[in-house]
Amino acid sequence: MEQEIDTQELGEKIVKVLKTIYDPEIPVDIYELGLIYDVMVNTDSEVKILMTLTTPNCPVAESLPMEVEERVKSLDMVKDAEVEITFDPPWTQDLMSEEAKLELGLL
Fold it and tell me: Where does the secretion signal sit in this chain (predicted)?
């Protein structure tokens, strides 16, 4: 019998991984930067991440989503991961956490 996974626990582990990935132009991780809109985990350990970029012309538009996908897939509990990019709503500084704003001197 397969072990039931704790999707909340897995979600927290995924967020920890996302906080290790930094935007190359801004010295803040992508989670605190507000680039991650949603992390969905199902009971089959499949993960879908909805994220955006600071701009559609972002220099890491190709590599950053791949890095997110690969890092999340590297977690033992994750069977598969998919990253979807959206620009709706577009990213603004309002999406940044207080911590990120403080780090960048915006508070």
Answer: none
CB 82 within 8 A of CB 69: yes
Residues 6+ apart with CB under 8 A from 69: 49, 81, 82, 83
Closest of 14, 21, 45 to residue 35, by C-alpha = 21
Contact indicator for 71, 81 with CB cutoff of 8 Å: no
pLDDT tens column, 70-104: 999 999 999 999 999 999 999 999 999 999 999 89
pTM for this entry: 0.90
Q: How far apart are CA 5 and CA 41, in angstroms?
A: 10
What are the sequence ranges of the domains in the chain? 7-92
7-92: CATH number: 3.30.300.130
89: DSSP letter: S
Q: Confidence band (pLDDT; 50, 70, 90) for 5? A: low
Q: What is the mean pLDDT of residues 4-15?
A: 85
